[in-house]
Amino acid sequence: MNCWAVVAINTRLRRKRRLRGVLDAADREALTRRMLGSVLAAADGARSIARVVIVSPDDEGLPQGYEILHDDGGGLSAAFELARTRACAALARELVFLPADLPRLKSADVDALVIAGRGARIAIAPDRRRTGTNGLYLPAALDFTCRFGVESRARHEDEARRRGIEPAIVMRRGLAHDLDTPADLRSLGPGIASRAGTAGGAERRA
What we know:
Elements: E1 3-8, H1 25-45, E2 51-55, E3 67-69, H2 76-89, E4 94-99, H3 107-120, E5 123-126, E6 133-139, H4 152-162, E7 168-169, H5 173-176, H6 182-187, H7 192-195
Parallel strand pairs: 1-2, 1-4, 2-3, 5-7
Antiparallel strand pairs: 4-6, 5-6
Helix pairs in contact: 1-3
């Protein structure tokens, strides 16, 4: 199967603004790059993934060796829809959508999401609060509208059921733990910034 992983990251000037009270600009930027590197490494190492692409409004701070799709900064849903258009044009058959702020993500988590999705046709990985969406598997050509944002898990489940599909729900630590707020940072423990990976450390999958 030709499965693409799509990793979305916001423009540099808007990355992790909610951490301003605990990290200065340089530390936030370094953390963002490390988390992106960790997610890319997990996607590159997943056996189920044939290609990894990045969606971002700008190129600044992004690693080389990946195709970068430029969105308009309108949010995750719009970014992923842009990537789906590109993937379908390239005859990709499956897509996995991942945000760039999953510091504990492993290749096994990505493979688990794909395997579950292949069984059910749609797979959703909720955040640790079980209300958001931190990973989404779809057949590339499926008529499905991405609905990321507040309470997105319920919206994605409803979207799947409207198409007669009962989505698989994938609960894994690497997919559940995103990092947006000071509370998220504390929940991941001390030193997460240094353990989150090295930005650009992943090699592009041919």
